[in-house]
């Protein structure tokens, strides 16, 4: 059964939209993080090795930023592949949410920030339709992550 409030058609177009940006997972994942660190500098405090980096150029070149950008995109890709299987979807989202809530203590508002930046990037690169078709997916992901945080006592 679907976790999602997405119809089959919406699911297909969301996957199509995601595929366009996931083709360049490392570059696009890096671009998303660099934009987040630049526009929301407080988010850098979670990453001790990014703290001293002020220029976007420096961040873009960093293996750690690139590595984490790719990791973020890979995690979302796993979720996108399992949008039509709630058990598999939650099997990916739950441990990720728990780790960020309990070990890393990342404020859950940062998931929304990342999702919004991904949507911006989609719109810039591929237009408004691409963004619109992925918006519901980001809402689902953020809702599930927030629920996990609540269960962990946030």
Automatic annotation (TrEMBL):
Belongs to the globin family. It comes from the Eukaryota. It comes from Pheucticus melanocephalus. Its EC number is 1.15.1.1. InterPro entries: Globin, Globin-like_sf, Globin/Proto, Globin_lamprey/hagfish. It holds the Pfam family Globin. The gene is Cygb1. Residues 5-150 form the Globin domain. This is superoxide dismutase.
